[in-house]
Every structure is written in structure tokens, then in C-alpha cells.
Amino acid sequence: MTLKDVVEKLGLRVMTVKAALDPELTGAYAGDLLSDVMANARPGNLWITMQTHQNVLAVAQIKDLAAIVLVNGRKPDAETLQKADQENVTVLGTDEPAFRISGQLYRLLGEP
Amino acid sequence: MASRQNLSHAFEIQGGDFGKAGCVSLEIKEILRDLGIDPAIVRRTAIAAYEAEMNVVMYADSATVMLRLNPQGIKIALDDKGPGIHDIELAMQEGYSTATDQMREMGFGAGMGLPNIKRNADLFELKSTIGKGTSYKIFIDLGSEEKT
Fold this sequence. Notes:
Chain A has helices spanning about 5-10, 35-40, 55-60, 80-85, 100-110, and strands at about 15, 25-30, 45-50, 65-70, 90-95. Chain A has about 110 residues and is an alpha/beta fold. A five-stranded mixed beta sheet of chain A has the order 1-5-4-3-2, with helices on both faces. In chain B, a hairpin with a 3-residue loop joins strand 4 and strand 5.
């Protein structure tokens, strides 16, 4: 399933201007500890988090993640969003908490 | 495309600069990717570099990083000027961290940085002198299998 399919089915907000929605998703990973995501997320994963500062971008880039989903209606810092566009990292948002969006994604994507 | 033979690059990291944190690791990733190195090996190298870079940003004053590539593998030598690590064995244990509350709120300080370097490197040597600094030697074998 592509990122675009998931964005449409779950009504995720696309926050970055230059969002690439064509990647095929390999699953998703939920976590707010950056080194945990570094260790355990897989390339092509959607990353569910409440961290909104700009250091999330390097994690997404180094791990080749498909996109970041910010939960609970959290908004990225202005500099995070600007840098995300510069670095071609797709940032999405939802009003749902991490548990609910993870459950919905699990239903769509199944076992990793 | 640059030659794979005996490439070397030097970088500097400034301690406390969270705005630029990760830049050196991303640059290393880009250099290696442009050389056509296997993406899994590039990723492992970038993860190891990132964890070392973040340790400098969080705990040290500054660091120099040397990236070297030869036909056998990728070497990263990072030398920081900083407080040093009191107990390396303890610091290598997953879950142990001396991060401040502010760093933890940002999602750092999981106590996984050094273990992540060890997991992704084929060889990892860490030496530290209290009050002077810490040196990281990381080697990734170009022929190694994907580890993560």
C-alpha cells in the first residue's frame, strides 16, 4: 500500500509542501525515543510520534523512513516544517492519539 | 562519482548545537550513497555515525570526524573534546544514560546510542579520558551482511 492510500484512508493531514506520497509502505513504527526508532524502525516505515522538533528529520532521513505522522493534533515547529521541505521529508498529522492511529494502520497494513 | 579507492573526508561537530545535529551523519550518508555502496551498509554506517554525533552534541564541546574508505570497508574516527565517559562498560549497557530531563523530553537519552553503534558496526572501539575527551573508532566491512 502506498503512502497516498494510507493518507486518504485515514484522513491524515499533509503538512509539508513537497510531500512525496508515492512510496510503498513497508509497515509502521511508533515511538518517541529517537535511538529506539534508529534501532527498530525499518526502511520505508511510517513513523508515528509526538516529537515535533527538527531532530526527528535526521532520524527519518538516516533510516529512509517513508514519512513522519505527528499524533494528538501536534504541530511541528515552524523551523521543522521548513527544514522538512528543504530535506524532502514528508510530515503528516492526525488528531488521533498514537494508540488509535497505530491500530488503524495495523488494520490496513497488517503484520510488519 | 568519486573514486572508491582511499577516499577521505574530515568533518567538525559543535557540542550543544541541536540545530545542526545529524548534519555530519547525513553528509556521510550522501557521500557513501553517491559512491554506489549498498544501501543497507550506507544506512548502518549513517546510524553509527549519527549516534556518535548526537553524543558529541549532547555531552561534548566539539569533535573532529574522519571518514575513510578503502576497498575493505568504511572507517569513521571521531575524537571529541569533552568530559569523557566515567565507566565505558556501564555506558555500553542498553538503558543507561546520563541525559538531562530536557534531552529526554526531546526523545534522546534512551540509553541506546552506544549499543546502536555496536550493533551496526563490524568493529567498534571506544576510548575515553576523563576531563579530555572520547574517541570512537567505527569500522563497517563492505562485504558484511545486513545486520539490522
